[in-house]
Amino acid sequence: MQIEFFNFFRSVVQTEDGLVLYALALIVSMEIIDFVTGTIAAIINPDIEYKSKIGINGLLRKISGVLLLMILIPASVLLPEKTGFAFLYSIYLGYIVFTFQSLIENYRKLKGNVTLFQPIVKVFQRLLEKDDDTKKGE
To answer: Where are the transmembrane segments (predicted)?
Structure first.
């Protein structure tokens, strides 16, 4: 039995354009979850002082970050050949890693056990280092 949900995602990422848009959608989804979990952690955790101004500033920072990532899409077309895609994809991948780390931090603030996620963060970091090494060789 085929799972249509995963087949849809596979079909989306078959082209470079689809992969970039998929990564951007993933970033937006992760940012929303990050904001919600950060707000919940600030409300629930007595060690964190909940201030709406800090939450609003965080939300504005996230919106600004996503807008900047969106601006990079047309800018990447100006770079020669596949360089634009590699540039865009490496920035998006880095953003995904940092957002994932923020999600783990929020989970830790909610008193969750984060040891399960440490190997995943290490794999992401190695992937970013490998990507940086590849860009230096070009």
So the answer is: 20-43, 63-80, 86-104
